[in-house]
Amino acid sequence: MVVIVASLFLPFQPEFEFGDSNDVSGTKQNDPNDPSTDGTPTVKRSQSFHSLAATAGKQEKETDKSSTNNEGQKQGGVPAVLNPQFLMENLTATTSNSAVVTPVTPLYSLGNASVEEFFASGSVAKPKDNDGSSAVHSTVSSPSGELASGLHSGANSGGVDTTANLLKNVNKSLLYQSVLAGSRSMTALEGSKVIPSAASRSRQLLDVGKDKTPHTSLSAVRWNAQHKLGTPGVVTAHSSLKYPLTPDHQSPSNTEQDDALKSDDECDNIVVQHSGRRSPKVAKYGGYSDRAKLRAQLFNTKDMLKNVPWKIVPSIKGNGGLRNALGTAIIEKTIDQPVIWVGTVGIPTDNVPDEVMDDITVALKQNFHSRTVITDNVTFKGAYVNFCKQILWPTLNYQIPDNPNSKAFEDHSWNYYQHLNQQFADKIVETYQDGDTIWIHDYHLMLVPGMIRKKLPSAKIGFFLHVSFPSSEVFRCFAQRDNILEGMLGANSLGFQTEEYARHFQQTTNRLLMADVDTHLLKYKGRLIAVESIPIGIDALDLEAQIKSEATQEWRKLIRERWAGKQLIVCRDQFDRIRGLKKKMLAYEQFLKDNPEYIDKVVLIQICLGSGFDAELEREVMMIVDRVNALSNDISASPPVVVLHQDLQFPQYLALGCEADLFLITTMREGMNLTCHEFVICSQDKNAPLILSEFTGSAHVLSQGAFLINPWDIKQVSQVIKKALELSKEEKRRRWKQLFKSVITHDSDRWIVSSLTNIANTWEANNERSKVYNLTLSKIQDSYVKSKRHLFVLKISEPLNARSLAVLAELSSKHSVFVMNSFSRSVLERIYSRVPNIGLIAENGAFVRLNGTWYNLVDDISWKEDIVKVIEDKVERLPGSYYKEGETMIRFHSENAEDKDRVSNVIGDAITHVNTLFGDSGIHAYIHRDIMYVQQSGLAVRAMNFLLNQCNSAGCEPNASPDGSPLTSPVVNSIATLSSPSTSGSKTSSNSTTSYLSKNRPDRRVDFVAITGSSSPIIEPLFQLVNQSAKDGEIANCYTIAYGEAIKTYAKEHIQGLNELFGILDKLVKL
């Protein structure tokens, strides 16, 4: 038995390599004996959960080889490594969404900043890179190459502080740019160049703006060539922004050949508007420009890759939290089952020859326990870029797309999303063996559980959503809402990051699919689905070890000297509108204006991850940064705000976290921000406070020690910043200890174990409900004859004929027989007036008639008045519907509604309203046979316990009287006292009922119990209760019998209908 983990990207990917230009002789296969390609399906973390920096560890030896080949490249040789991603980087068109980051390389990115120079002062040497992953690619905006060379000159002259020199030069460059661009903005960004990381060199050597030797896309290459020839109209001023300020930055094209070459290039797909914002030029409704074949022919990609050596390396794509958590769990034996990964390889497979792709697939399967889903480039781009990133992800984060063509675009890309999910489902079914556990992850694969369930009805399937789940009001705007929900409900267990997200999901399914929901449980189409909140965590012990490494400690020393006497506010976010970067800068600006004494004492370091495509957002943020930095009079010192458009090496990131005086997160919506968890571990020495947006999943985990803020409240955030910076040492320590305990408690091991346990437990519950056998007379008659005291509880809602009533009369003359349904007491008495000894249970357990006396088991009915107002409002909105008010319940009938199309929405709204507002009071709304019932929950179980306690004495024998008068009993009232609903409440608990009825009585226990009825939310808990009693040995002979459709039920036996039931009862009573 294994755990099959499905995620969009595998934790491993192929890497193509070039040595000498003449040395491309054969394909290099994976060597299982090579320690750098160990078959263990784990990746040792050497980076943050959200970091884009490459992993170190086992990959270091490989990247060292690549760095050697890099030297040859500088001399004009062939690139050492060719990532096929480059060959397809800009083949497809995409729509734009202001809340979405499109991972493409900025066409106009200029020089890059050296992280070492960013940290180091002139008198301190940079630390040696002990782990082999010495640098990261940068997308930081920076001054020109001339400025960079000038910086190096200054570094070697007379002990001049290079950082101060850099800052002066940056400001001069920006001033020069501002004059050229007609702007008054002056943005201070630190850094000048980049030293590529080993991992990044090995995979991104041909990336356009991320290497010392610019290697841009085809049209950009032509543009650069034309610029060298003196082509007019090209602006040469260096910008501190990644995108142009004016539309003059468009690359010219003068020939048809040029148009053909650049048709699939990013440059051709970008339109620079007069506002300066670059927006993609896409085929209508999300279609694609089919020039990929032309581009492939130009590169002769497939022929070239046939003989290029390759190897498998750890991938930097995908869900780092999942990858690292499972890696740690496998290494530390937290889970004892083997793990098989299912996912895509993260490269455009259309450009790889089939035979090479087959070899890669085999290598991943044999050496890395991975099964590859191979999909064409168009499908992947349509599903991932167009649907996931521009439709689904924004909706889940409360950013509903409002593009005029959004509906058509969504319908178009939805087909690709379905196809990709079906490919994943087919691969998982192909991999699955009996007993395996299937664990599917994140919003890219929401349809997969349902698709697998159709082919593997009895499989153990779990699904975990790593992002947020919105309220039903937002999710209902999604066109494919029902399909998504149905797909997710194919799982046995659904995991969410917080209770809020789990509750939103239950309310949404309750409202849109009319599923019956309970605490952490959902019932839909005869199946039970667990709905749990299990926040993902980090491995704190592993992180502590990396914090203590020599490299991290040396970087800490540099940081202390670089910002001596300063308080550091550290922020690290993806560069998109969801992260609240603009709000953060506005709050920081407000803080400095209100507290000018902090202007030269505090530095906010903002690390921006990813290659953001939103030029407008960047300009908005940098305008605020300009204003903040203009508050300082000392331009030679570090400015109040430092913005880095790059991630750091992991030791650098840890060192910055260790030296931070405050960590600030202002994201508008996020599933779980593990960066702040890492910060808590980093801050063991300084115990720095954490300011955290209340809209992150982490806020629910770290609420005890963090300062929770509303990012939209600028004034509040600015005040909290001041408060956090001025905390006493004792208060810092107290808050940090609470944060540390939460991080340790909600770690990655707990997340994995709890998730897999929930999947197994819910599967077992459903499996138990599936074991239903047809009931026969021969099966029941032996135990019936041997038993001495019998109890029959029959849930019957249909009118009975004379023959059935005669059978009931004969059966009740010998045994204890009770009929239960939702009818009122008066109706039941009229129906069964011809059966003298029959017991009755009215309103689904609210009232029990025992030996002619009615017993009230309801705690309170004061809630009815408020519920009636809600139902009346729904009746007005749905002509033809009506409601009936009983003594302890309300029924909402919609079977005669005029507008059938609106029935589900109105009923769903009513159920959601009732369960949300009154659920904590024990009031529950559910739907059965198109009728909505509202009643106190658990009454049927309470009535059953009452009967068992009573019948285990002489109280329910035919013609027997109970011990004690109902008029004087502390738990029951006679029918005479229940003439009006207002006097029917009894405040005594069911525990009091048990103790009273069991007091001083001989134990003559019932040894035969039969409960029967059609499956419903009322009878299923009774089946479960009696089965458990039999299992515990409390009942010798137990029969739980369901009739009607043979759906999943807790009943152990099944019959076709009431006629068959009464046929068996008639034969039993005559034995």
From TrEMBL:
GO terms (BP aspect): trehalose biosynthetic process
PANTHER family reported for this sequence: TREHALOSE SYNTHASE COMPLEX REGULATORY SUBUNIT TPS3-RELATED (PTHR10788:SF15), TREHALOSE-6-PHOSPHATE SYNTHASE (PTHR10788)
Lineage per the UniProt record: Eukaryota, Fungi, Dikarya, Ascomycota, Saccharomycotina
Entry GO terms, CC: alpha,alpha-trehalose-phosphate synthase complex (UDP-forming); cytosol
Source organism of the structure: Eremothecium sinecaudum
Subcellular location: Cytoplasm
InterPro entries to which the protein is assigned, alphabetical: Glyco_trans_20, HAD-like_sf, Trehalose_PPase
Recorded superkingdom: Eukaryota
Name of protein: HGR062Cp
Primary location class: cytoplasm
Low complexity composition-biased segments: 133-144, 978-998
